[in-house]
Write a structure and sequence with these properties.
By secondary structure, this protein is α/β, with parallel strands linked by helices. Helices cover about 35% and strands about 20% of the residues.
Length: about 575
Protein backbone atom coordinates (compact mmCIF):
# COMPACT_ATOMS: atom_id res chain seq x y z
CA UNK A 1 0.00 0.00 0.00
CA UNK A 2 2.97 2.27 0.64
CA UNK A 3 4.06 1.98 -3.01
CA UNK A 4 0.52 2.68 -4.20
CA UNK A 5 0.28 5.83 -2.05
CA UNK A 6 3.69 6.94 -3.33
CA UNK A 7 2.54 6.54 -6.96
CA UNK A 8 -0.70 8.39 -6.24
CA UNK A 9 1.04 11.29 -4.47
CA UNK A 10 3.12 11.95 -7.60
CA UNK A 11 -0.14 12.86 -9.35
CA UNK A 12 -0.65 15.77 -6.97
CA UNK A 13 2.23 17.73 -8.54
CA UNK A 14 1.90 20.69 -10.92
CA UNK A 15 2.52 18.36 -13.87
CA UNK A 16 -1.15 17.43 -13.68
CA UNK A 17 -4.16 19.70 -14.11
CA UNK A 18 -6.28 20.83 -11.18
CA UNK A 19 -9.18 18.50 -12.00
CA UNK A 20 -6.89 15.46 -11.97
CA UNK A 21 -5.21 16.53 -8.73
CA UNK A 22 -8.59 17.01 -7.09
CA UNK A 23 -9.76 13.55 -8.16
CA UNK A 24 -6.65 11.87 -6.76
CA UNK A 25 -6.68 13.89 -3.51
CA UNK A 26 -10.26 12.82 -2.87
CA UNK A 27 -9.35 9.15 -3.33
CA UNK A 28 -6.48 9.53 -0.87
CA UNK A 29 -8.56 11.47 1.68
CA UNK A 30 -11.39 8.93 1.63
CA UNK A 31 -9.00 5.95 1.68
CA UNK A 32 -10.88 4.67 -1.35
CA UNK A 33 -10.50 1.02 -2.37
CA UNK A 34 -10.34 2.33 -5.94
CA UNK A 35 -6.94 3.94 -5.27
CA UNK A 36 -5.07 0.61 -5.29
CA UNK A 37 -6.51 -0.47 -8.64
CA UNK A 38 -5.62 2.87 -10.19
CA UNK A 39 -1.99 2.84 -9.04
CA UNK A 40 -0.78 -0.73 -8.47
CA UNK A 41 0.54 -0.98 -12.05
CA UNK A 42 1.06 1.04 -15.20
CA UNK A 43 -1.36 0.75 -18.09
CA UNK A 44 0.37 -1.60 -20.53
CA UNK A 45 0.15 -2.62 -24.16
CA UNK A 46 -1.54 -6.01 -24.62
CA UNK A 47 -2.65 -8.07 -27.63
CA UNK A 48 -4.94 -5.22 -28.70
CA UNK A 49 -2.93 -2.22 -27.54
CA UNK A 50 -3.78 -0.25 -24.42
CA UNK A 51 -7.27 -0.59 -23.01
CA UNK A 52 -8.82 0.17 -19.64
CA UNK A 53 -11.28 2.11 -17.50
CA UNK A 54 -11.25 5.88 -17.91
CA UNK A 55 -10.17 8.04 -14.96
CA UNK A 56 -7.11 9.51 -13.27
CA UNK A 57 -4.20 7.22 -12.43
CA UNK A 58 -1.40 5.21 -14.02
CA UNK A 59 -3.70 2.19 -14.52
CA UNK A 60 -6.41 4.22 -16.23
CA UNK A 61 -7.09 5.75 -19.64
CA UNK A 62 -6.71 9.52 -19.37
CA UNK A 63 -5.02 12.56 -20.84
CA UNK A 64 -1.67 11.67 -19.30
CA UNK A 65 -1.44 7.94 -19.96
CA UNK A 66 -2.50 8.56 -23.57
CA UNK A 67 -0.17 11.55 -23.79
CA UNK A 68 2.75 9.52 -22.48
CA UNK A 69 2.04 6.69 -24.94
CA UNK A 70 1.89 9.19 -27.80
CA UNK A 71 5.04 11.01 -26.72
CA UNK A 72 6.84 7.65 -26.59
CA UNK A 73 5.50 6.74 -30.03
CA UNK A 74 6.63 10.12 -31.37
CA UNK A 75 10.14 9.62 -30.00
CA UNK A 76 10.29 6.12 -31.48
CA UNK A 77 9.11 7.27 -34.90
CA UNK A 78 11.76 9.99 -35.05
CA UNK A 79 14.44 7.41 -34.17
CA UNK A 80 13.18 4.89 -36.72
CA UNK A 81 12.76 7.40 -39.55
CA UNK A 82 15.32 10.18 -39.02
CA UNK A 83 15.17 13.11 -41.43
CA UNK A 84 11.78 11.95 -42.75
CA UNK A 85 8.58 13.98 -42.83
CA UNK A 86 6.44 11.81 -40.55
CA UNK A 87 2.70 11.27 -40.91
CA UNK A 88 0.22 9.49 -38.62
CA UNK A 89 -3.50 8.76 -39.19
CA UNK A 90 -5.96 8.87 -36.28
CA UNK A 91 -9.51 7.51 -36.00
CA UNK A 92 -11.91 7.13 -33.10
CA UNK A 93 -15.16 5.37 -32.24
CA UNK A 94 -18.41 6.26 -30.49
CA UNK A 95 -17.19 5.91 -26.92
CA UNK A 96 -17.26 8.63 -24.30
CA UNK A 97 -14.26 10.94 -24.72
CA UNK A 98 -13.02 9.19 -27.88
CA UNK A 99 -13.22 12.38 -29.95
CA UNK A 100 -11.54 14.40 -27.18
CA UNK A 101 -8.80 11.80 -26.76
CA UNK A 102 -8.25 11.65 -30.53
CA UNK A 103 -7.72 15.42 -30.66
CA UNK A 104 -5.40 15.27 -27.65
CA UNK A 105 -3.31 12.55 -29.33
CA UNK A 106 -3.20 14.65 -32.52
CA UNK A 107 -1.98 17.61 -30.49
CA UNK A 108 0.91 15.64 -28.99
CA UNK A 109 1.97 14.25 -32.37
CA UNK A 110 1.86 17.70 -33.98
CA UNK A 111 3.79 19.16 -31.05
CA UNK A 112 6.49 16.65 -31.96
CA UNK A 113 6.63 17.86 -35.58
CA UNK A 114 4.57 14.95 -36.94
CA UNK A 115 1.90 15.52 -39.58
CA UNK A 116 -1.52 14.21 -38.57
CA UNK A 117 -4.50 13.13 -40.66
CA UNK A 118 -7.45 12.99 -38.29
CA UNK A 119 -10.87 11.65 -39.25
CA UNK A 120 -13.43 14.44 -38.99
CA UNK A 121 -15.90 12.15 -37.20
CA UNK A 122 -16.12 8.62 -35.85
CA UNK A 123 -15.10 5.83 -38.25
CA UNK A 124 -14.67 2.03 -38.17
CA UNK A 125 -11.28 0.66 -37.17
CA UNK A 126 -10.74 -1.15 -40.52
CA UNK A 127 -10.96 2.19 -42.32
CA UNK A 128 -8.11 3.46 -40.14
CA UNK A 129 -6.01 0.42 -41.09
CA UNK A 130 -6.81 1.09 -44.74
CA UNK A 131 -6.00 4.81 -44.38
CA UNK A 132 -2.53 4.14 -42.97
CA UNK A 133 -1.32 2.30 -46.08
CA UNK A 134 -3.46 4.19 -48.60
CA UNK A 135 -2.23 7.59 -47.41
CA UNK A 136 1.38 6.47 -46.94
CA UNK A 137 1.42 7.04 -43.18
CA UNK A 138 4.21 5.91 -40.90
CA UNK A 139 1.79 4.84 -38.18
CA UNK A 140 -1.86 4.95 -37.20
CA UNK A 141 -3.83 5.23 -33.97
CA UNK A 142 -7.43 4.39 -33.19
CA UNK A 143 -9.18 5.40 -29.98
CA UNK A 144 -11.48 2.52 -29.06
CA UNK A 145 -12.15 -0.10 -26.41
CA UNK A 146 -13.77 -2.45 -28.91
CA UNK A 147 -16.65 -4.32 -27.23
CA UNK A 148 -15.83 -3.43 -23.59
CA UNK A 149 -18.36 -1.78 -21.23
CA UNK A 150 -19.09 1.99 -21.47
CA UNK A 151 -16.56 3.00 -18.79
CA UNK A 152 -13.68 1.72 -20.94
CA UNK A 153 -11.63 3.32 -23.68
CA UNK A 154 -8.43 2.36 -25.43
CA UNK A 155 -5.61 3.12 -27.82
CA UNK A 156 -4.40 0.87 -30.62
CA UNK A 157 -1.23 1.60 -32.60
CA UNK A 158 -0.70 0.57 -36.23
CA UNK A 159 2.51 0.47 -38.23
CA UNK A 160 3.08 1.65 -41.80
CA UNK A 161 1.72 -1.58 -43.34
CA UNK A 162 -1.67 -0.95 -41.72
CA UNK A 163 -1.27 -3.78 -39.22
CA UNK A 164 -1.11 -3.40 -35.46
CA UNK A 165 2.36 -3.14 -33.97
CA UNK A 166 4.33 -6.37 -33.53
CA UNK A 167 7.94 -7.11 -32.48
CA UNK A 168 10.30 -5.36 -32.50
CA UNK A 169 8.28 -2.15 -32.83
CA UNK A 170 5.89 -2.89 -29.95
CA UNK A 171 8.67 -3.41 -27.40
CA UNK A 172 10.60 -0.49 -28.89
CA UNK A 173 7.65 1.87 -28.37
CA UNK A 174 7.01 0.55 -24.87
CA UNK A 175 10.66 1.12 -23.98
CA UNK A 176 10.39 4.74 -25.12
CA UNK A 177 7.18 5.19 -23.14
CA UNK A 178 8.63 3.68 -19.97
CA UNK A 179 11.63 6.02 -20.10
CA UNK A 180 9.37 9.06 -19.96
CA UNK A 181 8.15 11.09 -17.06
CA UNK A 182 4.69 12.61 -17.38
CA UNK A 183 6.30 16.06 -17.26
CA UNK A 184 8.03 15.31 -20.59
CA UNK A 185 4.82 15.08 -22.60
CA UNK A 186 4.61 17.90 -25.15
CA UNK A 187 0.97 18.96 -25.34
CA UNK A 188 1.68 22.19 -27.27
CA UNK A 189 -0.09 21.47 -30.55
CA UNK A 190 0.95 22.79 -33.95
CA UNK A 191 -2.43 23.25 -35.69
CA UNK A 192 -0.73 23.66 -39.07
CA UNK A 193 0.28 20.00 -38.97
CA UNK A 194 -3.24 18.64 -38.32
CA UNK A 195 -5.46 17.93 -41.34
CA UNK A 196 -8.91 16.36 -41.41
CA UNK A 197 -10.13 13.52 -43.65
CA UNK A 198 -13.57 12.05 -44.23
CA UNK A 199 -15.85 11.59 -47.22
CA UNK A 200 -13.14 11.27 -49.86
CA UNK A 201 -11.46 8.40 -48.02
CA UNK A 202 -14.86 6.81 -47.32
CA UNK A 203 -15.43 6.66 -51.07
CA UNK A 204 -12.07 4.98 -51.69
CA UNK A 205 -12.64 2.50 -48.86
CA UNK A 206 -16.14 1.60 -50.14
CA UNK A 207 -14.70 0.84 -53.56
CA UNK A 208 -11.90 -1.31 -52.12
CA UNK A 209 -14.32 -3.19 -49.86
CA UNK A 210 -16.67 -3.99 -52.75
CA UNK A 211 -13.77 -5.00 -55.00
CA UNK A 212 -12.45 -7.47 -52.40
CA UNK A 213 -15.76 -8.63 -50.93
CA UNK A 214 -17.96 -9.35 -53.97
CA UNK A 215 -17.86 -12.20 -56.47
CA UNK A 216 -19.66 -13.48 -59.56
CA UNK A 217 -22.94 -14.45 -57.91
CA UNK A 218 -26.65 -13.92 -58.40
CA UNK A 219 -29.49 -13.12 -56.05
CA UNK A 220 -28.29 -10.06 -54.16
CA UNK A 221 -31.61 -8.24 -54.45
CA UNK A 222 -33.45 -11.37 -53.24
CA UNK A 223 -31.54 -11.60 -49.99
CA UNK A 224 -33.44 -10.22 -47.00
CA UNK A 225 -30.95 -8.67 -44.55
CA UNK A 226 -31.25 -7.21 -41.04
CA UNK A 227 -28.35 -5.07 -39.87
CA UNK A 228 -27.48 -3.54 -36.50
CA UNK A 229 -24.48 -1.39 -35.61
CA UNK A 230 -25.14 -1.84 -31.85
CA UNK A 231 -24.79 1.95 -31.41
CA UNK A 232 -21.32 1.84 -33.01
CA UNK A 233 -19.37 3.19 -35.97
CA UNK A 234 -20.38 0.70 -38.67
CA UNK A 235 -23.56 2.67 -39.37
CA UNK A 236 -21.29 5.12 -41.23
CA UNK A 237 -20.20 2.51 -43.80
CA UNK A 238 -21.94 -0.88 -43.89
CA UNK A 239 -25.43 0.18 -45.10
CA UNK A 240 -23.82 2.13 -47.94
CA UNK A 241 -21.44 -0.71 -48.87
CA UNK A 242 -24.32 -3.21 -49.00
CA UNK A 243 -26.43 -0.83 -51.07
CA UNK A 244 -23.65 -0.17 -53.57
CA UNK A 245 -22.98 -3.89 -53.89
CA UNK A 246 -26.62 -4.51 -54.84
CA UNK A 247 -28.22 -5.51 -51.53
CA UNK A 248 -31.37 -3.42 -51.69
CA UNK A 249 -33.46 -5.32 -49.13
CA UNK A 250 -31.70 -4.26 -45.91
CA UNK A 251 -33.53 -3.50 -42.67
CA UNK A 252 -31.58 -1.45 -40.13
CA UNK A 253 -32.42 -1.79 -36.41
CA UNK A 254 -33.23 1.87 -35.92
CA UNK A 255 -33.21 1.74 -32.11
CA UNK A 256 -29.51 0.82 -32.29
CA UNK A 257 -28.53 2.93 -35.31
CA UNK A 258 -27.46 6.09 -33.47
CA UNK A 259 -23.86 5.97 -32.18
CA UNK A 260 -24.00 6.11 -28.38
CA UNK A 261 -21.20 5.36 -25.91
CA UNK A 262 -23.72 4.23 -23.29
CA UNK A 263 -24.95 1.39 -25.57
CA UNK A 264 -28.42 1.85 -24.00
CA UNK A 265 -30.22 -1.14 -25.55
CA UNK A 266 -27.64 -3.85 -24.74
CA UNK A 267 -25.87 -5.16 -21.65
CA UNK A 268 -22.74 -5.60 -23.78
CA UNK A 269 -22.15 -4.23 -27.31
CA UNK A 270 -20.48 -7.48 -28.33
CA UNK A 271 -21.89 -9.55 -31.21
CA UNK A 272 -20.32 -12.61 -29.57
CA UNK A 273 -23.05 -12.33 -26.93
CA UNK A 274 -26.42 -13.72 -28.13
CA UNK A 275 -28.30 -11.09 -26.13
CA UNK A 276 -26.66 -8.30 -28.15
CA UNK A 277 -28.46 -9.44 -31.31
CA UNK A 278 -31.89 -10.00 -29.73
CA UNK A 279 -33.44 -6.85 -31.22
CA UNK A 280 -32.02 -7.66 -34.63
CA UNK A 281 -33.35 -11.22 -34.50
CA UNK A 282 -36.78 -9.90 -33.44
CA UNK A 283 -36.75 -7.66 -36.51
CA UNK A 284 -35.60 -10.58 -38.66
CA UNK A 285 -38.56 -12.63 -37.51
CA UNK A 286 -40.95 -9.76 -38.30
CA UNK A 287 -39.47 -9.24 -41.77
CA UNK A 288 -38.72 -12.91 -42.52
CA UNK A 289 -35.06 -12.03 -43.06
CA UNK A 290 -32.51 -14.58 -44.26
CA UNK A 291 -29.56 -13.19 -42.33
CA UNK A 292 -28.77 -10.92 -39.38
CA UNK A 293 -25.53 -8.95 -39.22
CA UNK A 294 -24.32 -7.16 -36.09
CA UNK A 295 -21.04 -5.38 -35.41
CA UNK A 296 -19.20 -4.17 -32.32
CA UNK A 297 -18.61 -0.44 -31.57
CA UNK A 298 -15.45 -0.02 -33.68
CA UNK A 299 -16.70 -2.35 -36.43
CA UNK A 300 -13.99 -4.93 -36.52
CA UNK A 301 -16.03 -7.88 -35.16
CA UNK A 302 -19.07 -9.19 -36.99
CA UNK A 303 -21.81 -11.46 -35.64
CA UNK A 304 -23.96 -13.49 -38.04
CA UNK A 305 -27.32 -15.17 -37.41
CA UNK A 306 -29.01 -17.28 -40.09
CA UNK A 307 -31.97 -19.63 -40.51
CA UNK A 308 -31.28 -23.21 -39.38
CA UNK A 309 -32.89 -26.32 -40.90
CA UNK A 310 -36.09 -25.64 -38.96
CA UNK A 311 -36.27 -22.01 -40.12
CA UNK A 312 -35.24 -20.56 -36.76
CA UNK A 313 -32.62 -17.86 -36.40
CA UNK A 314 -29.34 -19.34 -35.15
CA UNK A 315 -26.29 -17.31 -34.08
CA UNK A 316 -23.13 -18.55 -35.77
CA UNK A 317 -19.98 -18.61 -33.69
CA UNK A 318 -16.77 -17.09 -34.98
CA UNK A 319 -15.29 -20.45 -35.91
CA UNK A 320 -18.30 -21.39 -38.03
CA UNK A 321 -18.34 -18.06 -39.84
CA UNK A 322 -14.60 -18.04 -40.53
CA UNK A 323 -14.75 -21.62 -41.83
CA UNK A 324 -17.51 -20.89 -44.31
CA UNK A 325 -15.89 -17.59 -45.37
CA UNK A 326 -12.55 -19.32 -45.93
CA UNK A 327 -14.11 -22.08 -48.02
CA UNK A 328 -16.11 -19.58 -50.09
CA UNK A 329 -13.05 -17.40 -50.77
CA UNK A 330 -10.75 -20.27 -51.74
CA UNK A 331 -13.46 -21.81 -53.90
CA UNK A 332 -13.88 -18.54 -55.79
CA UNK A 333 -10.12 -18.19 -56.21
CA UNK A 334 -10.16 -21.70 -57.68
CA UNK A 335 -13.04 -20.88 -60.03
CA UNK A 336 -11.09 -17.84 -61.23
CA UNK A 337 -8.03 -20.00 -61.92
CA UNK A 338 -5.95 -18.07 -59.36
CA UNK A 339 -4.75 -21.01 -57.22
CA UNK A 340 -1.18 -22.00 -58.09
CA UNK A 341 0.29 -23.16 -54.78
CA UNK A 342 1.46 -19.69 -53.76
CA UNK A 343 -1.55 -18.80 -51.60
CA UNK A 344 -2.26 -19.04 -47.90
CA UNK A 345 -4.95 -18.35 -45.32
CA UNK A 346 -4.39 -17.16 -41.75
CA UNK A 347 -5.71 -18.48 -38.46
CA UNK A 348 -4.80 -18.53 -34.76
CA UNK A 349 -3.80 -21.16 -32.21
CA UNK A 350 -7.18 -21.01 -30.41
CA UNK A 351 -9.33 -21.07 -33.57
CA UNK A 352 -10.94 -24.11 -35.18
CA UNK A 353 -8.83 -26.65 -37.04
CA UNK A 354 -11.67 -26.97 -39.56
CA UNK A 355 -10.10 -24.03 -41.41
CA UNK A 356 -6.88 -26.01 -41.76
CA UNK A 357 -8.78 -29.01 -43.15
CA UNK A 358 -10.67 -26.83 -45.64
CA UNK A 359 -7.54 -25.09 -46.91
CA UNK A 360 -5.62 -28.36 -47.21
CA UNK A 361 -8.42 -29.84 -49.35
CA UNK A 362 -7.67 -27.14 -51.94
CA UNK A 363 -3.90 -27.46 -51.58
CA UNK A 364 -3.70 -24.12 -49.76
CA UNK A 365 -1.47 -23.59 -46.72
CA UNK A 366 -2.84 -22.39 -43.38
CA UNK A 367 -0.45 -20.25 -41.37
CA UNK A 368 -1.29 -20.26 -37.67
CA UNK A 369 -0.25 -17.48 -35.30
CA UNK A 370 -0.95 -16.21 -31.81
CA UNK A 371 -4.31 -14.73 -30.88
CA UNK A 372 -4.82 -11.27 -32.34
CA UNK A 373 -5.06 -10.01 -35.89
CA UNK A 374 -1.72 -8.28 -35.68
CA UNK A 375 -0.16 -11.71 -36.12
CA UNK A 376 -2.18 -12.42 -39.26
CA UNK A 377 -1.16 -9.02 -40.63
CA UNK A 378 2.45 -9.93 -39.82
CA UNK A 379 2.12 -13.12 -41.91
CA UNK A 380 1.32 -10.99 -44.97
CA UNK A 381 4.38 -8.85 -44.31
CA UNK A 382 6.64 -11.84 -43.61
CA UNK A 383 5.68 -13.73 -46.78
CA UNK A 384 5.43 -11.12 -49.56
CA UNK A 385 6.01 -13.84 -52.17
CA UNK A 386 2.67 -15.48 -51.23
CA UNK A 387 -0.88 -14.33 -51.96
CA UNK A 388 -3.06 -13.87 -48.88
CA UNK A 389 -6.64 -15.04 -49.47
CA UNK A 390 -8.23 -14.32 -46.10
CA UNK A 391 -7.93 -15.01 -42.42
CA UNK A 392 -9.88 -15.10 -39.21
CA UNK A 393 -10.02 -15.93 -35.53
CA UNK A 394 -12.68 -17.41 -33.29
CA UNK A 395 -13.58 -14.08 -31.69
CA UNK A 396 -15.82 -13.01 -34.60
CA UNK A 397 -13.10 -11.39 -36.70
CA UNK A 398 -12.29 -11.90 -40.38
CA UNK A 399 -10.10 -10.17 -42.95
CA UNK A 400 -10.74 -10.47 -46.70
CA UNK A 401 -7.59 -9.97 -48.76
CA UNK A 402 -4.77 -7.69 -47.68
CA UNK A 403 -6.11 -4.20 -48.46
CA UNK A 404 -6.98 -3.94 -44.74
CA UNK A 405 -4.54 -5.38 -42.22
CA UNK A 406 -6.93 -5.91 -39.32
CA UNK A 407 -10.21 -7.67 -38.78
CA UNK A 408 -12.77 -5.93 -40.93
CA UNK A 409 -16.49 -6.16 -40.16
CA UNK A 410 -17.35 -3.96 -43.15
CA UNK A 411 -16.01 -6.28 -45.85
CA UNK A 412 -16.81 -9.39 -43.79
CA UNK A 413 -20.47 -8.33 -43.57
CA UNK A 414 -20.49 -7.98 -47.34
CA UNK A 415 -18.84 -11.40 -47.75
CA UNK A 416 -21.42 -13.01 -45.44
CA UNK A 417 -24.18 -11.60 -47.65
CA UNK A 418 -22.44 -12.91 -50.76
CA UNK A 419 -22.37 -16.42 -49.25
CA UNK A 420 -26.02 -16.22 -48.19
CA UNK A 421 -27.23 -14.74 -51.50
CA UNK A 422 -25.31 -17.29 -53.56
CA UNK A 423 -26.64 -20.16 -51.45
CA UNK A 424 -30.24 -18.90 -51.66
CA UNK A 425 -29.97 -18.50 -55.44
CA UNK A 426 -28.94 -22.16 -55.59
CA UNK A 427 -31.81 -23.39 -53.36
CA UNK A 428 -29.55 -23.73 -50.33
CA UNK A 429 -28.78 -21.49 -47.35
CA UNK A 430 -25.87 -20.14 -45.32
CA UNK A 431 -26.47 -22.78 -42.63
CA UNK A 432 -26.95 -25.60 -45.13
CA UNK A 433 -23.62 -24.74 -46.73
CA UNK A 434 -21.95 -24.94 -43.30
CA UNK A 435 -23.40 -28.42 -42.77
CA UNK A 436 -22.10 -29.49 -46.18
CA UNK A 437 -18.65 -28.38 -44.99
CA UNK A 438 -19.03 -30.63 -41.95
CA UNK A 439 -19.90 -33.64 -44.09
CA UNK A 440 -16.87 -33.05 -46.32
CA UNK A 441 -14.49 -32.66 -43.39
CA UNK A 442 -15.48 -33.01 -39.70
CA UNK A 443 -18.25 -31.55 -37.57
CA UNK A 444 -16.31 -29.24 -35.25
CA UNK A 445 -17.95 -27.73 -32.18
CA UNK A 446 -16.31 -24.99 -30.14
CA UNK A 447 -17.13 -23.33 -26.86
CA UNK A 448 -15.61 -20.44 -24.91
CA UNK A 449 -15.70 -19.72 -21.18
CA UNK A 450 -14.42 -16.36 -19.88
CA UNK A 451 -13.77 -16.04 -16.16
CA UNK A 452 -13.52 -12.43 -14.94
CA UNK A 453 -11.06 -11.70 -12.12
CA UNK A 454 -10.88 -7.97 -11.48
CA UNK A 455 -8.23 -5.92 -9.73
CA UNK A 456 -4.91 -6.81 -8.13
CA UNK A 457 -6.24 -9.96 -6.42
CA UNK A 458 -7.86 -11.07 -9.67
CA UNK A 459 -4.57 -10.75 -11.55
CA UNK A 460 -2.89 -12.97 -8.94
CA UNK A 461 -5.68 -15.57 -9.18
CA UNK A 462 -5.35 -15.73 -12.96
CA UNK A 463 -1.59 -16.10 -12.62
CA UNK A 464 -2.07 -18.99 -10.16
CA UNK A 465 -4.52 -20.79 -12.47
CA UNK A 466 -1.89 -20.82 -15.22
CA UNK A 467 0.84 -21.97 -12.77
CA UNK A 468 -1.34 -24.89 -11.65
CA UNK A 469 -2.13 -25.93 -15.23
CA UNK A 470 1.60 -25.90 -16.06
CA UNK A 471 2.81 -27.68 -12.94
CA UNK A 472 0.03 -30.27 -12.85
CA UNK A 473 -0.87 -30.95 -16.50
CA UNK A 474 -3.93 -32.99 -17.38
CA UNK A 475 -3.04 -36.41 -18.80
CA UNK A 476 -6.52 -37.49 -19.87
CA UNK A 477 -9.55 -35.48 -20.99
CA UNK A 478 -12.96 -37.16 -21.33
CA UNK A 479 -11.28 -40.58 -21.38
CA UNK A 480 -8.97 -39.57 -24.23
CA UNK A 481 -5.24 -39.38 -23.53
CA UNK A 482 -3.57 -35.99 -23.82
CA UNK A 483 -1.14 -36.36 -26.68
CA UNK A 484 0.51 -32.94 -26.65
CA UNK A 485 0.76 -30.02 -24.25
CA UNK A 486 1.81 -26.87 -26.06
CA UNK A 487 3.20 -24.20 -23.74
CA UNK A 488 3.60 -21.01 -25.75
CA UNK A 489 5.31 -19.23 -22.87
CA UNK A 490 8.24 -21.66 -22.95
CA UNK A 491 7.79 -22.42 -26.69
CA UNK A 492 7.78 -26.15 -25.86
CA UNK A 493 5.45 -28.79 -27.30
CA UNK A 494 5.67 -31.86 -25.07
CA UNK A 495 4.37 -35.31 -25.96
CA UNK A 496 2.88 -36.41 -22.63
CA UNK A 497 2.96 -40.07 -23.70
CA UNK A 498 6.58 -40.33 -24.87
CA UNK A 499 8.02 -37.32 -23.04
CA UNK A 500 9.50 -35.96 -26.28
CA UNK A 501 9.82 -32.17 -26.42
CA UNK A 502 9.88 -29.98 -29.53
CA UNK A 503 10.64 -26.24 -29.68
CA UNK A 504 7.83 -24.30 -31.37
CA UNK A 505 8.81 -21.51 -33.76
CA UNK A 506 6.26 -18.94 -32.67
CA UNK A 507 6.49 -15.79 -30.50
CA UNK A 508 6.12 -16.40 -26.77
CA UNK A 509 2.72 -15.91 -25.17
CA UNK A 510 1.06 -16.98 -21.93
CA UNK A 511 -1.08 -19.72 -23.51
CA UNK A 512 -1.43 -23.44 -22.80
CA UNK A 513 -3.12 -25.83 -25.26
CA UNK A 514 -3.90 -29.49 -24.68
CA UNK A 515 -4.33 -31.76 -27.72
CA UNK A 516 -5.94 -35.19 -27.15
CA UNK A 517 -5.78 -38.41 -29.17
CA UNK A 518 -9.41 -38.04 -30.27
CA UNK A 519 -8.79 -34.57 -31.77
CA UNK A 520 -10.09 -32.44 -28.92
CA UNK A 521 -8.31 -29.18 -28.11
CA UNK A 522 -8.50 -27.23 -24.84
CA UNK A 523 -6.72 -23.90 -24.47
CA UNK A 524 -6.20 -21.57 -21.50
CA UNK A 525 -5.25 -17.93 -22.15
CA UNK A 526 -5.30 -14.88 -19.88
CA UNK A 527 -6.60 -11.87 -21.81
CA UNK A 528 -4.04 -9.24 -22.70
CA UNK A 529 -6.52 -6.36 -22.49
CA UNK A 530 -9.20 -7.43 -19.98
CA UNK A 531 -9.21 -8.80 -16.40
CA UNK A 532 -10.19 -12.31 -17.43
CA UNK A 533 -8.90 -15.75 -18.33
CA UNK A 534 -10.38 -17.56 -21.30
CA UNK A 535 -10.82 -21.30 -21.83
CA UNK A 536 -11.38 -22.51 -25.39
CA UNK A 537 -12.86 -25.93 -26.13
CA UNK A 538 -12.88 -27.66 -29.52
CA UNK A 539 -14.21 -31.16 -30.19
CA UNK A 540 -15.00 -32.94 -33.45
CA UNK A 541 -16.81 -35.90 -34.97
CA UNK A 542 -17.63 -37.36 -38.35
CA UNK A 543 -20.94 -36.32 -39.94
CA UNK A 544 -22.17 -38.75 -42.59
CA UNK A 545 -25.34 -36.93 -43.64
CA UNK A 546 -26.89 -33.52 -42.96
CA UNK A 547 -29.94 -35.27 -41.50
CA UNK A 548 -27.79 -36.46 -38.58
CA UNK A 549 -26.38 -32.99 -37.83
CA UNK A 550 -28.67 -32.28 -34.86
CA UNK A 551 -27.82 -35.57 -33.14
CA UNK A 552 -24.07 -35.17 -33.72
CA UNK A 553 -24.12 -31.58 -32.44
CA UNK A 554 -25.97 -32.73 -29.32
CA UNK A 555 -23.27 -35.37 -28.66
CA UNK A 556 -20.49 -32.82 -29.15
CA UNK A 557 -22.20 -30.33 -26.81
CA UNK A 558 -22.48 -33.06 -24.17
CA UNK A 559 -18.79 -33.86 -24.59
CA UNK A 560 -17.84 -30.20 -24.03
CA UNK A 561 -19.97 -30.08 -20.87
CA UNK A 562 -18.29 -33.24 -19.55
CA UNK A 563 -14.86 -31.67 -20.12
CA UNK A 564 -15.86 -28.43 -18.40
CA UNK A 565 -17.08 -30.40 -15.37
CA UNK A 566 -13.95 -32.55 -15.39
CA UNK A 567 -11.59 -29.58 -15.13
CA UNK A 568 -13.76 -27.86 -12.50
CA UNK A 569 -14.74 -24.71 -14.39
Amino acid sequence: MEEILKNATLWLSDTFDSETRKEIQQLIDTNSDDLADRFYKNMEFGTGGMRGIMGAGINRINKYTLGKATQGLSNYLHKQFPNKTLKVAIAYDCRHNSNTFAKLVANVLSANNIHVVLFEDLRPTPELSFAVSHLGCDAGIVLTASHNPPEYNGYKVYWNDGGQIVPPNDSGIIEEVNQLDFSEINFNANPDLINYIGAELDETFWQASIKNGTFDIKGRSDLNVVFTSLHGTSITLIPEVLKRAGYTNVHVVQEQATPDGDFPTVASPNPEEPEALEMAIDLANKTNADIVIGTDPDSDRVGIAVRDLDGNMKLMNGNQTMSLMTDFLINNWEKAGKLNGNQFVGSTIVSTNLVNEIAASYGVETKVGLTGFKWIAKMIKDFPELNFIGGGEESFGYMVGDFVRDKDAVTSALLACEIAADAKANNSSFYNELLHLYTRHHFYKEHLISIVKKGMDGAEQIKQIMVDLRNNPLTKIDESKVLYLCDYQSSIQKNLITGEEITMDIPKSNVLIYHTEDGSKIAARPSGTEPKIKFYFSVKSKLDTIENATAVEKDLDAKIQRIIKEINL
